[in-house]
Amino acid sequence: MPYNIYMTNPLLDYGEFAAYADIQAKDIVPAINIAITKSQAQLEVILELPVAEYNFANTIHALVEMENHIGNVWTPVENLLSLMGKDDIRDAANEARPLVVEFYNNYSLDPRVYKLIKDYAQTAEAKSLTGEKKRHLENTVLDFKLSGAELEGKEKEEFKALNLKLSDLSQKFSDNVTDSKFELIITDEAELAGLPDDIIDGAKRKANEMREQAASIPVGAWLFNLDYPSYGPLMKFADKGNLRKQLYLKYLAKATDAANRGLSGGDKNDSLNNEPLIQEIYAAKLRKTNLLGYKNYAELSLQTKMAPSPEKVKEFLQRLGTKAKPLAQKEYQALIEFQKQIGYQNTENNSDEVYPWDRDYLSEKLRKEKYDFDTNLTKPYFELRNTIKGMFDIAETIYSIKLVEVKGIQVWHEDVEIYQVQNKDGSVVGTFYMDLYPRDIKRQGAWVMPLLGACIESDGTKILPQCTLVCNLTKPNDTHPSLLTHIEVVTLFHEFGHALHHLFSKVELEPLSGTNVEWDFVELPSQLNENFSWEKESLLTFAKHYQTGEVIPDELLEKMLAARTFNEGLGCIRQLEFSLFDFAIHMRESAEDSRSPNDIFKEIVAENGVFSVWEGTNFPCSFSHIFAGGYSAGYYSYKWAEVLEADAFSRFQKEGVLNPSIGQEYKEKILERGDSEPPMDLFKDFMGREPSENALLERMGLEVASR
Ligand SMILES: [Zn+2]
């Protein structure tokens, strides 16, 4: 039966809140088609305007609102897809997605749109813009420019072709990593020494499953492979060093010329080697970069980030490295001492060195000895409801707000709760859905998805922000409440930090609103909020036994807090090696290089690292973040955001963790401001100076000379 567009479609015209309970798969494609048609028609109207009539509202702002028709349909679909994506919803979304992508591709490369933006930018009004409007116009021009809008003729065609080529090459890169397999088959039970029972059971199940494809696997065997849930625990717990060495070397040889498809590969004997792809990918990126007028890819990448220049980022990484290295060396030394102390015999029979495949194993054992407390002991102090209440109370105190549960709004599942953020006078700031428990068809992990950004529409309508806060925490039942590990508590606080950033926004233009900030700044509010789950003053307000109400005992708390900085130096150095490698690759002005990527990586590790790069390993070949993901010349942002967050939180530590006046200032100067000003300016406004890494170094346990 053809779809009747006159029938009501819950994805169209639904009022303030999406009608999640009513949405069906059959609604999705028709709604997207209607929305695209509307946006397209509105775009044509904007494009027909005579230049003499151009103003901000009827050009730049009108373009923002033109996209709303699509956003209003597509955002609820995407939200639903990750949370309640049944097969039919998934199929319908897969059918609709290419339509959306095609619309945006055409839009961003439409020369008429770029001409309109440039013509408006030349008007007297545009030149006198200030504040948000000025910033949004600049961002818009830059976005179009970086999408190749200024290129013409042959160059434009080449640019489009390079985009396609890069998307193919990245896909090939990540496929090669995923397809590189190795199965470690164990038949002697004694080899499993040290591994927890659930991991052993899992390994047996894997062997049984795999036998269907590879009959050679003996009955009763155990199987470990290079997938993290199998590889990670083996590296951490298996007593047999030779097993760990074997798997480690295979792991670090993924997507190299030595890689293959393992037992499931059948007769397929094609190359999975990513080394030539790294060069090809960089050559294509560099050509794009040069077409846009930049000298290397790092320079291009930073155009839309907070960090000022590649040189500054490199300096930042090296400075942090110099300061963290002594700590990492001390931690490395402690591992050597520990292996001697417990009489651990490594595979190379050399007790004066720790080898990379022993690192996680020895660290885990040492951590246990130094700090061990059973996580089961802290869990009763982090009952989920109690923790949420504690987290809300803290936010209510420091930001002078109220968090109120609301009913009567449609949800996609009965587990979903809805809360309003209100000012003290009861006026509504924004609304968020909270979906905390795992389900079969819910995506794993934790995240916040913005649904509506705070803004004022051109007709004066005020739009209140909405978002979804998602976790996958243990669900309570009739007999057991949900008792959280501290890691889960930290995750919850992290996501709540993102949600508050989104909801507090007082920005008027939607594209600058909430979490729409430069991406090396976006993790500041979330990571800063984690601190309230680590600081004694805030933690003690809610870490109470769910049955007795007793506050968490000091001894237990001290152990938990001390373990936070365990081997932080080594972790920091590893992140810095990856970041420096990323910049070394992407700051090159020629794709021709006599050194292989692995040679470059080795040089960096030799200069900055503690562990050495082992012969036969080739980490760059599986570094998908920067070669196949969005982190090219952006990997530094993990450490960058940590520095900002630790630095900003030091004001809370000095002036009072639960001090409402500092909370208010942080809210007004950072959380409410979205991307309305360059993040460095917001940061300096709050801190009264440029960022400093001292707070992070202190947290890691390093002495810092002056603050
Ligand atoms: Zn985050």
Architecture overview:
Helices cover 53% and strands 6% of the residues. It is mainly alpha-helical. It has four domains: 25-150, Glutathione S-transferase Yfyf (Class Pi), Chain A, domain 2 (Up-down Bundle); 181-265, no CATH class; 283-356 and 567-707, Neurolysin, domain 3, CATH 1.10.1370; 378-549, Collagenase (Catalytic Domain) (3-Layer(aba) Sandwich). The strands form three sheets. It has a five-stranded mixed beta sheet with strand order 3-4-5-9-6, sandwiched between helices. Strands 1-2 form a two-stranded antiparallel sheet. A hairpin with a 4-residue loop joins strand 4 (417-423) and strand 5 (428-435). Helix 22 runs antiparallel to helix 23 (597-608). It is globular. It starts with 24 loop residues before the first helix and ends in an 8-residue tail after the last helix. It binds zinc ion. Zinc ion binds at residues 494, 498, 523, 526.
Quick take:
The chain has 707 residues and is mostly helical. The chain has helices spanning 25-47, 57-66, 68-84, 87-108, 111-121, 124-127, 131-146, 153-179, 197-211, 228-237, 241-251, 275-291, 297-301, 310-341, 356-371, 375-378, 384-399, 486-503, 523-530, 536-539, 554-562, 568-586, 597-608, 624-627, 637-655, 660-671, 679-687, 694-699, and strands spanning 184-186, 222-224, 401-405, 417-423, 428-435, 447-452, 455-456, 462-463, 466-470. The chain has 28 helices and 9 strands.
